[in-house]
Amino acid sequence: MKTLLSSARRWLAVWAALLLGVGGAAALGVGPASALTNGAGNFAIASPSTAPTILTGTNNQSASNITFDVVNDWGTSTNTVTLTVSPNGQASNNCTTGNDVVFAGTPTAKAGTGSGNEAAPTVSVGVSQNSADTACGSNNDVLTLTFTPAPASGTATDTFPVTVSGIAYNVGSAASVGAVTLNYETTIPTAVSSPTPTGTSNATVATKANAGATGNNPQTYVTVGGTGVVSDIVVTEAAKAQVGAELCITPISGVTTFSFSGTAPTVTVTPSGTGITSATASIVGGVIEIAVAGGPSTAPATFTVHGASVTNGTTSGLAQASVSTGASCPGSSVIQSSVPIFNSAPTLNSAIAGIDIDATAINELETTYPVSGGCLPSAAKNSVILATDQNFPDALAASYLAGYLHTGILLTPTANLSSETQAALQAEGITNVYVVGGPLAVSQNTISQIQATPAYTCGGPGVGTKTGGNIQVTGPIYGQTQYDTAEQIAATPPVSYVASLDLAGAYAGQYNDTTGNQSSTPTAAGALSTAIIASGANFPDASAASVMAYHDHIPLLLTDPSSLSTQASAGLSALGIKQVIVLGGPLAVSNADVTAIQGMGISVIRIAGQDPTDTAQMLASFELNQQGTTYSGLGWGTSWGGTVMVARGDFYSDALAGSVLDAVNTQPLVLTANPSTVGTYLAAFLGSGGSTAGIDNLNNVVGSSGNIKAIQPLGGPLALNATTLSAMVTDVANG
Asked: Is residue 599 predicted with pLDDT exceeding 70?
């Protein structure tokens, strides 16, 4: 997986995810944690529904995270939770005759935001040796979590989610096969009725055969929801008699799921003369089961599985399988716990594009509201917004108004109404046009042409019927500059339409990779009325923000990069804004701008990267990030369909009217460097969208919501060429 995103931002985002108290365990199938309830006499740590398999004779193997809740009813005392490793349920004797499962290092732990308003306790982590396991030597099989309460404040018995992550084990060659149990006890008062340990399992030990397996060489790409034939899967014995009567290749159910399907593959065994007479494959329940006859081998043998077909699931990334052997499937001895089988590639949707900028805007509107599907929703009242295609500020600022009107944005040259836009007005059944921009953007001649255009019902001439009148015009909505126009647009919907958002968890700087200033905390607790501030001198940041403005009811105001424009200041005051999302670094929106905003009693979250593509992908992470109890983003990740929109980042044309595509589905908009270059920051973002952890670790927070399933290009081949599109698909598939 590409890891070019800023490490500071990425780790802060991961910690924000961990604050939700479900940590990385969700990707491993951990169920919800049971709470430690004040006075209830119970203390339960959740076990994963499917614990990862770790192998004998192998070191540094990842196990599930551990999650649980604690209630701070201990006053000012320091208390502990102790977890002791117990292989296969044994109370002790972990380290006799090589039967050792010990910590490979020291995990990390953190207490998240509480249920009330009390500060979370700090958690220190230590590992040590169980005194009953004297054969451990210097190895450690006890994990101690020490809770130090914060200075007293707020609710006295807040419940805090705790996540212990980064747990890995070294497993001895003679370790007991079965569940690795962590027996635990605590000194937290009223947490348990007695100190009797109760176990939870976060890994399963399996025997490691003296053999190995490889696959996906060369890499094979299979589109999500599709089928394909994968590269050979090769199983190689390192010593004779390692493969038993059955050889099993089982898909791993994880972020990327699939099954083997179709005609059974062929299996060849080399070299000849090893005593194996045949190896015959069949597909049973999506698993490849290979019956081995004449074995066990008298010399190390290699089994090559050729022509295996797969039916892919719905998520992108690396698809893997476990390879095991024994008397029957599933095998009792593991050869390789995770073998790459293929790369699951996102769907590349057909580009939404037209022959020019106006036609692209039309296609974006009609993709969301097809003429054949009844055109605009009734809430739109047959209205649409019209802006100039010769500059960017008016159309992008109008995204907020378009969301309020439940409609989209069409474009036109300044001097005359384009014939294609005129035809689209009639086809969509438009009876009223909101014009944004003054006469230097949309001329009086253009307005007159609109007013002279007969209005039709949905379908236009030949399908719809005349309404009996011409199309009407509201506005124009404009001011003397782009800043004035943006202010006037923001003031058009009622103030009550402005979103109030709790984004308290987004003030840690995790979305800011620049030296640009921002607030360290919000002005007040809870939901605050929110606006967007972006540069009015350049388009990329406002382009990326337009979908957020449309979808989440956030007015988009524009400012001069060097000092806060008076129009932006007036707009913030008139709308009663208490929280601003600034897009871009100090070259786009200066620190002087931020200081001026803060001087109005408004808190500022800056979302900014090293270039516009970096800012756009950071904004996408912010949009997707789960709110939960930390309020670190807009929470789109809980419901989005896995589609990310992509537009060129070196010209405004294709993203100008694309915000309407978020009317039905939440889809972040990211930007390439140019038509022929993806850009390092976007490539890294796409790679995280095909990884196990997902975008900003979201798969460890809200299921599979951090994975990209489809890429939606905006603009034709002159905007995003075939090589660029292919590279983006590969970035996701490679994870």
From this structure: yes
